[in-house]
């Protein structure tokens, strides 16, 4: 196999080029107000009110609000300004589907273009660490946090594998859609034993897609990643139907649930 220059080693935060520390602070602060429930769906926001609340000038607030509108947490209103957006289960399902489709494309392109042994080794190391996190019987919040960290790392590595900045940007947009990330519903499931079974299945899929990429099996790699996203559907349904889990979910108040009859 012809090796390309390693690409995984350059995985970095999407925040590094966000336009300055004040914009980052404004974005993080506003997102926290929304996800914590302090700002409820439908709440109207204006630059002066948000700037006063966060103690940040209006220019970075303007940039932060535009970014969160792009991510889908805010929506423009005809009279001016923004409102906090609410999400239906269908919205979340579609967001996960988009993310899974884009990750499937990344896996296929990586397999077809070829991946360096350095990148493959880095991903194997990550998966070995996930295997360790999933071992043991008495797993709890700390173990889940470790899994979430490593799972995020693996997916970000995958996004970089094709060596396509264009695709990376599009995947970042898809992943930032509300509740669409691979870890979107995991934080609410630390106390649920069946959730750990789901994580074991997800980890098996991680290994399978890595093997498919290494073997240059593009169609198989794409299919595995698209199926992998379906686990997020199951996690969503589990959390939204369980009141205790739902209350542990960051941003839960943004979701309009369809409760069973």
Commentary on this structure:
With 261 residues, the protein is mainly alpha-helical. The protein contains 10 helices and 5 strands. The protein has helices spanning 21-35, 47-54, 58-71, 89-113, 117-134, 141-160, 165-176, 193-214, 218-240, 243-248; strands spanning 44-45, 74-76, 82-84, 87-88, 255-256. It has a 3-stranded antiparallel sheet with strand order 1-3-2. The protein has a two-stranded parallel sheet with strand order 4-5. A hairpin with a 5-residue loop joins strand 2 and strand 3 (82-84). The protein is globular and about 55 Å long.
Short description:
With 261 residues, the chain is mainly α.
* H/E element sequence: HEHHEEEHHHHHHHE
Low-confidence stretches: 7-19
Main structural class: mainly alpha
What is the averaged pLDDT score? 87
The end-to-end distance, rounded to whole angstroms, is 56 Å
**Approximately what portion of the residues adopt beta-strand conformation?**
under 5%
Over all CA atoms, what is the radius of gyration?
19 Å
**Main β sheet profile:** 3 strands, antiparallel
Helical residue percent band: 55-70%
How is the secondary structure organized here?
Blueprint lengths: L20 H15 L8 E2 L1 H8 L3 H14 L2 E3 L5 E3 L2 E2 H25 L3 H18 L6 H20 L4 H12 L16 H22 L3 H23 L2 H6 L6 E2 L5
Parallel strand pairs: 4-5
Antiparallel strand pairs: 1-3, 2-3
Helix pairs in contact: 1-3, 2-3, 4-6, 4-7, 4-8, 4-9, 5-6, 5-8, 8-9
